[in-house]
Specification:
It is a single chain. About 60% of the residues lie in helices and about 0% in strands. The chain is mainly alpha-helical.
């Protein structure tokens, strides 16, 4: 079985409490899962908003 390629990110320390709070309120189990969901659900909106 071939492993999926992954990318690692560094979450700045000042954002950890915000990420922890989102995870606690939503049931998301990890910062990796949180980032994947945010990118999947809001990535296109982010790009569009930054291009304005």
């Amino acid at each position: 079985m071939q492993r999926q390629k992954q990318k690692r990110i560094v979450l700045p320390q000042e954002l950890v409490p915000k990420a922890d709070n989102i995870c606690a309120q939503t049931g998301i189990t990890s910062h990796s899962q949180l980032m994947a969901l945010l990118l999947q659900n809001y990535g296109d909106r982010l790009v569009a908003a930054l291009k304005k």
